């Protein structure tokens, strides 16, 4: 690694806090190395207070760009020159590309999720999905699903601080896409049962299933699932959540959040480098099945 970094190497960053646990530098640097591309990817622990300076720094240092995670995803657009249509609809940016001093914000989480479905032979285009969640991951998925041509999306969330964001998503997607989008309280278990019953795919895009909510799931029990329902969890740690264990028991085909993580990175990699990430190599390297 050190031997391949020279005076010609171009920087790509990741700005978020906390961020030291991230796998993104490992993933991107391995892909650069594998393809012989002269970039280096580093994580920087930066929060909202230092964000404007950090963005100016990216420009001044002529970095090729940066990934962005919490708490900066929903704030960084203020400091950028352009925003992609999906990032605009999602109200969040996870990738910034620097084209000769012009910074454009993109969101690749939704593309990552939709590609991970495709990769597993799950074709939800023209069909209905039910999704729990209204935070960053959920909104990005809902936006991309609607843009890609999913016919109907039923969103469930608890009545917390994310509820207003869900209402906003319903409004925006109804105005800007042909997708039929509805919002329900996750506490309405009759609605949850009937919306899942008429869906091709059920997605968990909440923090339920990972620490500190590990061992819990967003559906009350296994009777909400059926063998021909596809189930996707955005959680990747643990690899198999309680929801996925239950889906497996019922006989559903399921995927975890590993594919979303890989493909959101691959989409960002393509935006930074213009090249496809070597997916098969990365799956092996990251131990993704
Ligand atoms: P966020 O904080 O923006 O949103 C959290 C969501 O969880 C909200 O909808 C909130 O209402 C819901 N929630 C929280 N506690 C709940 C509870 N007790 N019951 C029901 N719902 C509850 O977080 P985020 O960044 O959107 O992350 C959400 C999930 O998506 C996490 O599990 C995260 O690991 C996963 N994620 C995966 C990837 C990936 O690449 N695979 C990327 C981003 C996020």
Automatic annotation (TrEMBL):
It catalyses: L-quinate + NAD(+) = 3-dehydroquinate + NADH + H(+); shikimate + NAD(+) = 3-dehydroshikimate + NADH + H(+); shikimate + NADP(+) = 3-dehydroshikimate + NADPH + H(+). Homodimer. PANTHER family: BIFUNCTIONAL 3-DEHYDROQUINATE DEHYDRATASE_SHIKIMATE DEHYDROGENASE, CHLOROPLASTIC, SHIKIMATE DEHYDROGENASE. Keywords: Amino-acid biosynthesis, Aromatic amino acid biosynthesis, NADP, Oxidoreductase. Gene3D superfamilies: Leucine Dehydrogenase, chain A, domain 1, NAD(P)-binding Rossmann-like Domain. This is Shikimate dehydrogenase (NADP(+)). Its EC number is 1.1.1.25. Involved in the biosynthesis of the chorismate, which leads to the biosynthesis of aromatic amino acids. Catalyzes the reversible NADPH linked reduction of 3-dehydroshikimate (DHSA) to yield shikimate (SA). Pfam families: SDH_C, Shikimate_dh_N. Residues 259-284 form the SDH C-terminal domain. Pathway: Metabolic intermediate biosynthesis; chorismate biosynthesis; chorismate from D-erythrose 4-phosphate and phosphoenolpyruvate: step 4/7; Aromatic compound metabolism; 3,4-dihydroxybenzoate biosynthesis; 3-dehydroquinate from D-quinate (NAD(+) route).
């Amino acid at each position: 690694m050190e031997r391949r970094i020279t005076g010609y190497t171009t920087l790509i960053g990741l700005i978020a806090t906390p961020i030291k646990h991230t796998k993104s530098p490992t993933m991107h640097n391995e892909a650069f190395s594998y393809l012989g591309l002269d970039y280096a990817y580093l994580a920087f622990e930066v929060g909202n207070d230092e964000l404007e300076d950090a963005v100016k720094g990216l420009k001044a240092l002529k970095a090729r760009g940066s990934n962005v995670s919490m708490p900066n995803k929903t704030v960084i657009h203020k400091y950028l020159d352009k925003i992609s249509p999906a990032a605009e609809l999602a109200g969040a940016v996870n990738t910034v590309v620097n084209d000769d001093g012009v910074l454009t914000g993109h969101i690749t989480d939704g593309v990552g999720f939709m590609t991970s479905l495709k990769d597993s032979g799950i074709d939800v285009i023209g069909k209905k999905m039910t999704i729990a969640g209204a935070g960053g991951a959920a909104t990005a998925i809902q936006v991309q699903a609607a843009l890609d041509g999913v016919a109907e999306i039923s969103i469930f969330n608890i009545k917390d601080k994310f509820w207003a964001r869900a209402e906003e998503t319903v409004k925006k997607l109804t105005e800007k896409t042909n997708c039929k989008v509805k919002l329900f309280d996750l506490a309405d278990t009759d609605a949850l049962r009937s919306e899942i019953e008429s869906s091709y795919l059920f997605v968990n895009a909440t923090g339920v299933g990972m620490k500190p909510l590990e061992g819990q799931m967003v559906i009350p029990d296994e009777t909400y699932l059926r063998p021909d329902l596809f189930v996707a969890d955005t959680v990747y740690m643990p690899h198999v959540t309680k929801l996925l264990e239950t889906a497996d028991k019922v006989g559903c085909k399921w995927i975890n959040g590993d594919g979303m993580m890989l493909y959101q990175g691959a989409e960002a990699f393509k935006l930074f480098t213009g090249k496809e990430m070597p997916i098969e190599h990365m799956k092996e390297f990251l131990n993704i099945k």
